[in-house]
Amino acid sequence: MLKKIILVCAALMLLVQLNLDNSVSAAKKYGIVQESTGRSFVPVRYASETLGFKVNWDSVNNKVRISNQTDTVELIVGKETAIVNGKTKTLDAAPFNLSGTVYVPLRFVGEVLGVKVSYLRGEPIVIRNGTVTTEIEAVPLSRVEQAINQPVRTGSSKIATSTKTISINTVHIDLYHPKVRLDAVYANNKIGSTETFKKMVERSKAMVAVNGTFFNAYSETSTKIPYGYIIKDGKVINKASGDQRSVFVYTKSGEALVVDGESELKKLLDD
After folding, report:
1. Per CATH, which fold does 30-146 belong to?
2. With bands split at pLDDT 50, 70 and 90, how would you rate the model's confidence at 9?
3. How far is CA 60 from the centre of its chain?
């Protein structure tokens, strides 16, 4: 008779934060194209920090301040002017706040931050800073608004096999929502510990949770070692023991991949 396993060593948690307060969240790694005007926008935090600028958000005045050792830029959401090193400059379009992420016109980013920027319809937004080139996906504004309106949806379907029909339940998480966050959560926040799946979900406040890996559930010792890799924020928290196991991962841009073996995983982490 099989034992019922209720102890979980690790789980992947998909978090959706829907409380739209007056804060600026960590930006998604994509730019936005406004279909009605054809203008493109980039998240000010992502663009600035990628290029070595610091970003501060003034929630009282809806103002963003970006700076480095020599330059300071202040922008106000909804205003087509900015203060650059004490001088007023006119923007070709006003910055806007979309679910906690402030977006600024692409042309302005190039002018003020001293970088070359380019965008062709259907192509990524390209930011060049000297010899460093950064590409971010360009997403239509309507597509992001769709994600905001319905970040998570559930459904069901049936799969017919040669012998029977299987009913399955599905959960679809829209990664274009600015506040959807993917995270790896492990039991009691330490490797080798055990915790019920229910408690892990409650503790992490996950909207959707998926079991993450197998572990040594029937060991007589108090430490239950996981069998596979566990990766969090781009760092290997637990390394697979000996064999070359495939790893299911989400990249920083939200792409889902199955990585085959340690060498391919290392290459992905280095990138």
Report:
1. Copper Amine Oxidase; Chain A, domain 1 (3.30.457)
2. very low
3. 26
Enter the DSSP assignment of 215: B
* Backbone phi and psi for residue 54, each to the nearest 5 degrees, phi listed first: -95, 150
Do 196 and 229 meet the contact criterion of CB atoms below 8 Å apart? Answer: no
pTM: predicted TM-score of the whole model, two decimal places: 0.70
Residue 104: which of 143, 52, 65 has the closest Cα? 65
> What residue has token string 């915790």?
195
Task: Please state the rounded mean pLDDT for residues 145-166.
Answer: 90
Enter the tokens of residue 205: 């406040």
What CA–CA distances, in Å, run from 15 to 69, 114, 117? 36, 36, 32
CA-derived radius of gyration, the chain: 22
- Residue 214 tokens read as 């197998």
